[in-house]
Structures are given as structure tokens and as C-alpha cells.
Amino acid sequence: DTAVSQTPKYLVTQMGNDKSIKCEQNLGHDTMYWYKQDSKKFLKIMFSYNNKELIINETVPNRFSPKSPDKAHLNLHINSLELGDSAVYFCASTMNSPNTEAFFGQGTRLTVV
Amino acid sequence: AQSVTQLGSHVSVSEGALVLLRCNYSSSVPPYLFWYVQYPNQGLQLLLKYTTGATLVKGINGFEAEFKKSETSFHLTKPSAHMSDAAEYFCAVSYDQGAQKLVFGQGTRLTINP
Predict the structure, then answer these.
(1) I need a labelling partner for A87 at 20 to 30 A (CA). Which of A63, A80, A104, B74 fits?
(2) Does A102 contact B88 at a Cβ distance shorter than 8 Å?
(3) What is the pLDDT of residues B8-40, one digit of tens each?
(4) Is residue B66 within 8 Å of residue B55, measured between CB atoms?
(5) Dmax over Cα atoms in chain A, in whole Å?
(6) What CA–CA distance (Å, rounded) separates B107 from B4?
(7) Is B43 within 8 Å of chain A by CB?
(8) DSSP E strand boundaries for chain A
């Protein structure tokens, strides 16, 4: 039974399109995140939601819009996709504490052509 | 600002040899430190973490790490490498920004030679 699940696992799309990535966690956590891993494997936080409220919003283009319909779901919508958006996007969830384990999804590999 | 530096983007050891992956951090407050492992085409999995207390932390799969405040280091070791240890390893520091914010190092790819 997958703890943090993301869909789709792979996404290939053309420049200018709009796409969404979905994430769901069944761990009962209050806090969910989106991280981006670039082609050099570098991981950086994008957003964090706590119980549907936006908590962390890093310097990310406003083409990226997270949406949390409830505390078990955090989706990422990307408008007007650019080549530079190609990356692996990871969803994660934690209890609401800075010293707790983060549980990661398997990632969504986005390729913009 | 918090930051993490992993020395060596690629480490290669022989099966049965000692594994040492280096991590240094910069933090203005007492840090929470983590090591995560990423197998190919997978998400990240926690190996171990340091929060408070004992500075030698044991994790899964025989890994351990020692928090050394004076050296601002949190190096990861394993006495005897196994082929299944081949993966990407990430050191991270966490701090509270209303929610956990993990700041990752650039990662170290561990290769195990038979």
C-alpha cells in the first residue's frame, strides 16, 4: 500500500502546454511538499502546504500553481511549459515538525519538447 | 542561511570495503541532519537522522553517521559495502519555516565494484 503516490510517473509534452501532476498520501500527515530535482540531481523545495494552507513558497515562476483540495492531496499545475521545466518532480509528506522523516513519492519525470 | 556540501559527486568502492560519504553543513541554529538514499527511478528513502542526543546515529542497511559540531560535519559510513548499496546519497539539513524545509546537498553517487 503506497504511502505517497504520484501520477503520472512519466509526462512528455510540448512547450506551451499546461499540465498537472497529482499527489496523494495515506499516512495521515498534515504537511505536503513539492520538490524539484534537476538534471544534475539537485533537489530543491518548491512549495509546502499544511492542512490545505500554503506555508512555503520558494522563488518559483508563477506558472507553477499548487492546489490542495484536502490535507491528503497536493497537486501541481504548470502553465505554459518551457524547456527548462524538464525535471523530476517529487511529492513528499511529513508530520508537522522540522525533525521528522519526509516520505517521498516515486517522482514524475517531466520532459518538455 | 542553511547549506549543505557533499564532498565528491561520485565515490567508487570495492565490495566489502569501507564506505565513507562526506557531508558538511552550515547552519545558524542547531541543525537537524538527514541522510537520504535514492535508488534509480525511485523516490528518496530515509537512511538516518540526527536531531538531539547521541551524536553517533545508526540507520538502516548497516549505515551510520556521526554528528561533529566542531567540524560541522555529518559523514555517512558503512563498514562493508554491498552491491545493493549502489545508489545516490543525499545529505540534508532541515529547519523550521512554518513547515519542514529540507536543504539538500548536491548528492553523491556511490558505485560498488565487484
Answers:
(1) B74
(2) no
(3) 999 999 999 999 999 999 877 778 999 999 998
(4) yes
(5) 39
(6) 10
(7) yes
(8) 4-7, 10-13, 19-25, 31-37, 43-50, 53-57, 64-70, 73-78, 87-94, 103-104, 108-112
